[in-house]
Amino acid sequence: RFDLRFWWLVAFAAVLTCARFSEAFLLLRAENVGLAATWVPAILIVLNVMYACSAYPFGKFSDNGGRRRLLIWGIGLLIASDLVLALAGNIWLVGLGAAIWGLHMGATQGLLSVLVADAAPADLRGTAFGVFNLVSGLALLAASVLAGSLWTAFGPAMTFYAGAAIAAVALLGLLAKKA
């Protein structure tokens, strides 16, 4: 009983999830540029502080009717984060990339949940979230395998360039879809 709008959202989220592979790659990047293993988890703290601080204002913006614009900006933030992380030559740039990634999460995580709830019939919302999370989880697994393969074969920069490219595909799909 799910309509085309729901299935489009699931497909869109799967592509977007492929662009935001496991956050473990942020930790690997921090170590790659020379951060001591003891301090590597600080990168997740930076990401999560930015995520926590931005979720409320982005949620407020979404509630006031800016959902499409917020999703566009959120994907733009992911692209920016990936590019910073691809080019990072020091820990400060990795920290900046993680901070921007956190802003991306603050802009998109809650919004995607709202979009799922809006696209599903009221009596199927639990099933809708189950389908959405199943597909997103499978996409994250595939993305992380791809990211690891790229990292091994071509180095860290290529992993993040690929993430930016996949996010750009998701953005083009969103822009091509009529509001």
Radius of gyration: 16 Å
Main sheet, how many strands, which sense, barrel? none
Number of strands: 0
Oligomer: single chain
Number of helices: 7
Structural class: mainly alpha
Residues in β-strands, percent: under 5%
Distance between the termini: 22 Å
Summarize the helix and strand pattern as letters.
Answer: HHHHHHH
Q: pLDDT under 50 segments (min length 5)? A: none
How much helix, percentage-wise, in residues?
A: over 70%
- Overall geometry: globular
Q: What's the rounded overall pLDDT mean? A: 95
Outline of the structure:
Helix content is 83%, strand content 0%.
Please explain how this structure is put together.
This protein has 179 residues and is mainly alpha-helical. Helices cover 83% and strands 0% of the residues. It has 7 helices and no strands. The protein has helices at 4-19, 24-32, 42-63, 67-87, 91-119, 125-154, 156-176. The longest helix is centred in the C-terminal third of the chain and has 30 residues, at 125-154. The two termini are 22 Å apart.
